[in-house]
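User: Can you write out an input/output pair for a complex, sequences first and structure second?

Assistant: Here is one pair. Inputs:
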Amino acid sequence: MSALQKVYTKISQVTKATCSLKATGVGFDELAYIHGRLAQVVKIWGDEITLQVFSGTEGIPTNAEVVFLGKAPTLKVSDELCGRFFNAFGQPIDGGPEVDGEEREIGGPSVNPVQRKQPSELIATGIAGIDLNNTLVSGQKIPFFADPDQPYNQVMANVAMKAQADRIILGGMGLTNDDYLYFKNLFENAGILDHIVSFVNTTEAPPVERLLVPDMALTAAEYFAVDKNENVLVLLTDMTLYADALSIVSNRMDQIPSKDSMPGSLYSDLAKIYEKAVQFPSGGSITIIAVTTLSGGDITHAIPDNTGYITEGQLFLRKDTEIGKVIVDPFRSLSRLKQLVIGKKTRADHPQVMNACIRLYADAANAKTKLENGFDLTDYDNRVLDFAKEYSNDLLAIDVDLKIEQMLDTAWNLFGKHFSKSEVSIKKEFMDKYWVGKED
Amino acid sequence: MNKTTGKVVSIISNLVLVRIEGNVFQNEICYIFLGEEKLMAEVIKIIGDIAYVQVFESTRGLKPGSKVEFEGHMLEVQLGPGLLSKNFDGLQNDLDKMEGVFLKRGLYTPALEDDKKWSFTPLAKVGDTVAAGDWLGNVKENWLDHKVMVPFKFEGEYTVASVAEAGEYTINDVVATLKDKEGEIHNVTMVQKWPVKLAIKAYKNKPRPYRLMETGVRVIDTMNPILEGGTGFIPGPFGTGKTVLQHALAKNAEADIIIMAACGERANEVVEIFAEFPHLEDPRTGRTLYERTTIIANTSNMPVAAREASVYTAMTIGEYYRAMGMKVLLLADSTSRWAQALREMSNRLEELPGQDAFPMDLSAIIAGFYARAGIVYLNNGSTGSVTFIGTVSPAGGNLKEPVTESTKKAARCFYALSQNRADSKRYPAIDTLDSYSKYLEYPEFIEYSKEKLDENWVELVNEARNVLVRGKETEEQINILGDDSVPIDYHITLWKSEFIDFIILQQDAFDKVDATTSLERQQYMLKKVIKVARSEFKFDSFEEVAIYFKRLINIFKQMNYAVFKSDEFNKSEEEANAILEERLVK
């Protein structure tokens, strides 16, 4: 610490997450060390400064030493980031040396919307529940909605490995140590560690620290996407725990909570992160795949609800008891950007095949309700039920690994096997070309 | 004039408290000096010598003691030729004039071009008596007749003292001089400023809407019509197609000017508009749609306070073109984000909150905004209109939340998007039975529809609606009693309603032909499906009903996909008639 910095030693107020003291010449959002712990200015009221202490205020005495750093949180960016694991403050946790590079403020400005390019590159994952029904596009932001017992981190890692990104940035928030090691081993074993940068806040670290993780990860992502023109994939897991940390802070700052005890600014807070997903005109891109864990599949809770309004769709994981596998639910999942690529970058029949499958799957759901209520099923009901089971197993299950053409052919085979032409009801030009069943 | 100044004393995120030396007024604009940068802010509360200002930018690094200068006016927009084909942010900064990929804090760019020449033709003559909003001259903006008007701020009557000759002028050249009652001369240029939070009222009167605003979307035009100068809103959970529907309206609606306010929504959706609109052909003129469009983009990651301003900026530009006698369609996506911006500020001001922590006066603010839409008779007798359709993003899809409830009281058309319909890919996912258009009951509209559409138009619409209601009731009964425990007639009733659903209500926004349906075609198809709904059919078992109607739907859908009255269309129609003959009871 330089000798010029003024040191304060008189704290006037301490709460569970914040400290207040009288100080002058302090800027908003500025960092400080309190008792050796990193803190950030969240309120300036005359000469009284309130600081949010990331690791909590346990044991902080009223005469603790406070030093202001005169800058907002920063990250040093360079190619040295690759292959490394950092904590929420950007400090190495893998035993390696400090990273040297250009120091950049995290949480920087937004991209001018007129400078963005329209995303147009398809990201193939091999999973039909994604590629066929909810196709991903580079520059997109999309979360997995999953209950805590579903293998969302595995599915996300799987997607990341297949997505052929130049760079993968992992932002782990409240990751269990087991999951942290899972990601670490997976990346090491795949031999792609040098393509990956990780910022991890494990459950052992204080929750408020998490608030820095997305901005750290995205500052690194912007370095690779803007300075290096790379296609960067950012994985954020678990955003629900991030939002929980937001509510802890706002609660301790006596803010009036809105729905589900979340701060009124939740939408803007989440949007600031997700909107960093972008296709740059120079060729680089940032794609964000996140995880939002749900409580009992409830998507009306403030966190998934606000997320859904911000992200370009969601991938909803659900266990299909019929086939005993986890599937990407075709009803609740959506990729808003798929229209930019399906039928254009993929085969022309893609949009119609996708919709026909889902419509028939919906008919199966109705038939199932009838069955559960003890009614007789029609011949059509029985056929849609058979179709649904095979559709679920051959296409929706997350263990499917096919090329998109193969997925479409699989769907046509299922149509031909179970239905007549008028039941499938697809535009004539595609029927003429791909129909494999009997004529009406 | 000396500007009032002040010094920053407190900072909580984008709420800044300023100790003022002099007088300020509510909603006055000020600039906070932060190093080289100037941050724009608006006064939202004054207590003693402390002004509470909301800053339109990030306040990172701002320190107490920073200098503040007050500007002596409210948040204003520049109005003049050159607003079309522009992409503005919520404060009317021209986004295309900003340098660099990232938005720089404190960078403000002019909305209009000072050096561009416009071809001016005078409309008023020396000696004419004129008032605010009266037309003095005409300039060609793209291909539209942009009127140069007596500035809206001018009160009372004036006499035209001089008018410039036809020729090329910049927006700042004096094109007319006006003499007031005291004999003082006032210069008029092509550009004027207006505070966005105040409605422009330079018109004679505002009647009830009566003319249909054609949108090309069947479930709107046929079933729940919106009128020129009318108001509507689209609430819906995420993923139900709000934005796709709004884009469809923008592309196909029969308006002179389209203003889209992307208020706190996704940047990529705005990019889609930026990318598509310059290439979309305007079906009515053969030019591009972009030439008559203005976009206000304040995406969700842009500053919250500017988001609040963005809808007002859009409305003011809309009212400006209305005063020229144009039909303006204003779309805002989404007004919930605007309400949330109000909430964030109210929260920081530590106001006592209403429901869900929204400000208590939310209802009044929303109603006040919707009231600015409308059709008007201008002083010269011609009409102009602002039709407003906003989307609402109800938290958790719950339509009982404050923003939806408040909007419901203010808007006349309600387009309910249904999760069930979206799940089964029945797009647009507007639930016709939950939706309504109060305009269907307006005698003015009934009169209009008799003349322009069909003698029995409203009756036909209501008949279609009844078929849908009966279909829904029957479906519930079938679900309770079982397929074979109900008479076959029940199945026929259900399938007639499904038939209307598939042929009229559902529409493929991504199909070239089906994306937009002309009024003539809508009339034709409505009559056709009503004929089917009125027909009696004969079946031996309930299974036959579904199979038969699916065939019928399939063939009618091919009609929807074909160009109206083309060979393909006619062929499908013949086929449809043949299928109908099979089961018809004569």
